TrEMBL record:
The lineage of its organism: Eukaryota, Viridiplantae, Streptophyta, Embryophyta, Tracheophyta. The keyword Cytoplasm does not apply. Gene3D superfamilies: Vaccinia Virus protein VP39, Winged helix-like DNA-binding domain superfamily/Winged helix DNA-binding domain. It holds the Pfam family Dimerisation. It comes from Oryza meyeriana var. granulata. This is O-methyltransferase domain-containing protein. Residues 31-123 form the O-methyltransferase dimerisation domain. Keywords: Methyltransferase, S-adenosyl-L-methionine, Transferase.
Amino acid sequence: MDKMSPDSSWTPMAGVAADDDETTWLRAQELIWTCVVPMTLKAVMNLGLLDALINAATDGRALTADELAAQLPAVDKAEAAFSVDRMLRLLASFNVVNCSTDTGPGGEALRRYTPAPMCRWFAGNHPQGSLASLAMFAVDEDYLRTWHQLGAAVAGDGQVAFEKANGMPMFEYMGTNRRLNTVFNQAMAQQSKMVISKLLERFHGFNGVSVLVDVGGGTGATLEMITSRYKHITGVNYDLPNVICQAPSLPGVKHIAGNMFESVPNGEAIFLKSILHLQNDEDCIKILKKCHQALPPNGKVIAVEIVLPTIPEAVPAAQNPFRMDMVMLNNHRGGKERTEPEFAKLAKDSGYTSVFRATYIFANYWALEFGK
Ligand SMILES: C[S@@+](CC[C@H](N)C(=O)[O-])C[C@H]1O[C@@H](n2cnc3c(N)ncnc32)[C@H](O)[C@@H]1O
């Protein structure tokens, strides 16, 4: 059995070393066709193929494309199996699934698939959270078309690409597109689960807090996790009415609908996860000042944000935050990722004078404490 491993070396023409033209050409092709991978991934997830692989692997089974196609409603199962095999071998080449190859009865290659370690993030129900809804949102047709406006937006009149495509800011638009709003809220809640479970392991700034307000807290998943760990904390989840109306009832969490630019509920600490990166500096200061008014004299803001490295190196730990910075450029007027000194300046300019502390959490996320 020939096992394809992620690091097995392969040269396109045996005995001919790749020259610089070939290396850069292949990298350029990789960039140009990047969207093929998430589009294929989305189709494979929607067809239930990844969940089928994950379930089979719990009994130690690897599945062939024929076995996977048998569960699809396709009329021509053989044709469907051929397509499934082509989709999964692409995903194998990107380490989403593992592939082992045998020789079939007619001498043909017979591939069997199992989930690779990365695959767990695409399962619908991983206890640590999932990236499945985010994978759906990132290439959603109503969202993807906003990216076609990026160049015009940069050279234009100050409207960002999302506004150019939809005629209004992103969170206003979400109130008009219930389907996309649901995908987005699920994506945020599921992605936050992982970051928050790491936060609960690595950050100890909730001790001594009895009322914690999560401003822009989505449907309350973050506060549910925090209040389950810190039973003495009462959670107040604060978000726009179109989000709060989708929020489930959660133990230890009270939901309040409102606008953070107008007011923020009182609490001993205010949690802001992935909120400051949506705003320009002026709006961050407005929000932070509203939080300042809602805090007691010894209160603090806990902002959980991606922190940008200063040097754009070609490594995932830099590519990920710089990619998120592009997402902010596309989606939100003035939205951007920031470096640690930029966050410290925002805190100071908003009147937080006692403490600025940064704790690393996970995958470029930091917990930033601004003491009043
Ligand atoms: C990027 S999401 C972050 C959600 C959540 N904090 C998380 O990290 O999973 C931003 C959230 O801010 C909310 N939001 C945007 N503008 C708001 C406003 N003016 N007042 C209150 N919430 C707002 C959005 O509805 C959304 O739930």
